[in-house]
Fold this protein.
Amino acid sequence: MQLAHRGINGLSLLFALNADRLLVVATVVVGLLAGAWLGDLLAGHP
C-alpha cells in the first residue's frame, strides 16, 4: 500500500512538472499567433 502511495505522489509530481512546461509552450504559441494576427491586421491586406 505504501508503494502505491509513493507511486501516486511521484506521478502527481511528474504531472505538475509537465503541466508547467505545457503552460509555457501554450503561452509562447498564443503569443506568436497574437503577433501574427496583429501584424496581419496592421499590414492591411485587402
User: Anything to note?
Assistant: Helices lie at 2-43. The chain has one helix and no strands. The mean pLDDT is 82. Residues 2-43 form the longest helix (42 residues).
